[in-house]
UniProtKB/TrEMBL annotation:
<keyword id="KW-0325">Glycoprotein</keyword>
<dbReference type="GO" id="GO:0030018">
    <property type="term" value="C:Z disc"/>
</dbReference>
<dbReference type="InterPro" id="IPR018233">
    <property type="entry name" value="Calsequestrin_CS"/>
</dbReference>
<dbReference type="GO" id="GO:0010881">
    <property type="term" value="P:regulation of cardiac muscle contraction by regulation of the release of sequestered calcium ion"/>
</dbReference>
<comment type="similarity">
    <text>Belongs to the calsequestrin family.</text>
</comment>
<dbReference type="InterPro" id="IPR036249">
    <property type="entry name" value="Thioredoxin-like_sf"/>
</dbReference>
<dbReference type="Pfam" id="PF01216">
    <property type="entry name" value="Calsequestrin"/>
</dbReference>
<keyword id="KW-0106">Calcium</keyword>
<dbReference type="GO" id="GO:0005509">
    <property type="term" value="F:calcium ion binding"/>
</dbReference>
<dbReference type="GO" id="GO:0033018">
    <property type="term" value="C:sarcoplasmic reticulum lumen"/>
</dbReference>
<protein>
    <recommendedName>
        <fullName>Calsequestrin</fullName>
    </recommendedName>
</protein>
<comment type="function">
    <text>Calsequestrin is a high-capacity, moderate affinity, calcium-binding protein and thus acts as an internal calcium store in muscle. Calcium ions are bound by clusters of acidic residues at the protein surface, especially at the interface between subunits. Can bind around 60 Ca(2+) ions. Regulates the release of lumenal Ca(2+) via the calcium release channel RYR2; this plays an important role in triggering muscle contraction. Plays a role in excitation-contraction coupling in the heart and in regulating the rate of heart beats.</text>
</comment>
<dbReference type="InterPro" id="IPR001393">
    <property type="entry name" value="Calsequestrin"/>
</dbReference>
<keyword id="KW-0732">Signal</keyword>
<feature type="compositionally biased region" description="Acidic residues">
    <location>
        <begin position="302"/>
        <end position="335"/>
    </location>
</feature>
<dbReference type="InterPro" id="IPR041860">
    <property type="entry name" value="Calsequestrin_C"/>
</dbReference>
<comment type="subunit">
    <text>Monomer, homodimer and homooligomer. Mostly monomeric in the absence of calcium. Forms higher oligomers in a calcium-dependent manner. Dimers associate to form tetramers, that then form linear homomer chains. Interacts with ASPH and TRDN.</text>
</comment>
Length: 335
């Protein structure tokens, strides 16, 4: 793959030079620029260029034809290196067999192929820039895993990795402690329930109370990141303007203020934490206690199922003005 790219690049350059400059075709000046990369000179060469093109090749056999072909490729590379020298682009050759260790070190194939398993839900980024890597405290050929809303990444152990090792690690850590429901993968997220329920938090980031509540959620997630049974789904109503009326009706809540509740994915039955006053949001500890009760089953969507209707009838006596509206709402619920 790399070989073809490089040759294509070479051919492209030669032909474009010809087109632009008419007969002024660049000729090789005889200076050696392409070096063989080894573990010894690797660091020094990496420092020298902004961009390094690697040409991997099999060991050259003693066969005359093979040697001649290799020399030809070398000359093409030398010419390309000469033309691009002023742009700080370097060209090196790597003997895939002689420098097997180095080749493995430089080989991001495992990373690329692991990434394909999780497209497009988990994003994979690679950097070849030393400054960026340093800022991220990323070591050479290391893959760091960033869980959403966590401060620190986890360095995936045991590099250099195989594709399978990377895939397994990501699968194991894939479900974050706090995840934002996104339109592009909302169905995948919703299907990934925790034993039939989701703990759902509504918080509008652009709203001061929503923002504060989200910060509390993040705190709880950070404190409980090692709990594999916990995964909070955060929904910003701003991301789903068309669904807000539907959610308010289904869950019987007001989405103009922060909410957190348990939703049964089978029948959309739900229980919501009582947040009486927007100015009095639960603390991280209170939220953790509530979540603990949900995970232990103490708070669940089933207990109140029989009381529901009786309660509604009794409570409506005082505010007769509003009871019409609620009646209408109930009768819409048939589907
Ligand atoms: C969800 O609702 C279904 C149907 O009412 C019920 O059978 C099931 O036990 C509920 N699951 C949980 C985890 O509460």
């Amino acid at each position: 793959m790399k070989r073809t790219h490089l040759l294509v690049l070479g051919v492209y350059l030669l032909s474009s030079c010809r087109a632009e400059e008419g007969l002024n075709f660049p000729t090789y000046d005889g200076k050696d620029r392409v070096v063989s990369l080894s573990e010894k000179n690797f660091k020094q060469i990496l420092k020298k260029y902004d961009l390094l093109c690697l040409y991997y090749h099999e060991p050259v056999s003693s066969d005359k034809v093979a040697q001649k072909q290799f020399q030809l490729k070398e000359i093409v590379l030398e010419l390309v290196a000469q033309v691009l020298e002023h742009k700080d682009i370097g060209f090196v050759m790597v003997d895939a067999k002689k420098e097997a260790k180095l080749a493995k070190k430089l080989d991001y194939k495992a990373f690329e192929e692991a990434a394909e398993h999780f497209q497009p839900y988990i994003k994979f980024f690679a950097t070849f820039d030393k400054g960026v890597a340093k800022k991220l405290s990323l070591k050479m050929n290391e893959v760091d895993f960033y869980e959403p809303f966590m401060n620190e990444p986890i360095a995936i152990p045991n590099k250099p990795y195989t594709e399978q090792e990377l895939v397994e690690f990501v699968k194991e850590h894939q479900r974050p402690t706090l995840r934002r429901l996104r339109p592009e993968d909302m169905f995948e997220t919703w299907e990934d329930d925790l034993n039939g329920i989701h703990i759902v938090a509504f918080a509008e980031r652009s709203d001061p109370d929503g923002y504060e509540f989200l910060e509390i959620l993040k705190q709880v997630a950070r404190d409980n990141t090692d709990n594999p049974d916990l995964s909070l789904v955060w929904i910003d109503p701003d991301d789903f303007p068309l669904l807000v009326p539907y959610w308010e009706k289904t869950f019987k809540i007001d989405l103009f203020k922060p909410q957190i509740g348990v939703v049964n994915v089978t029948d959309a039955d739900s229980v919501w934490m009582e947040i009486l006053d927007d100015d009095d949001l639960p603390t991280a500890e209170e939220l953790e206690d509530w979540i603990e009760d949900v995970l232990s089953g103490k708070i669940n969507t089933e207990d109140d199922d029989n009381e529901d209707e009786e309660d509604d009838d009794d409570d409506d006596d005082e505010d007769d003005d509003n009871s019409d509206e609620e009646d209408n709402e109930d009768s819409d619920d048939d589907e």
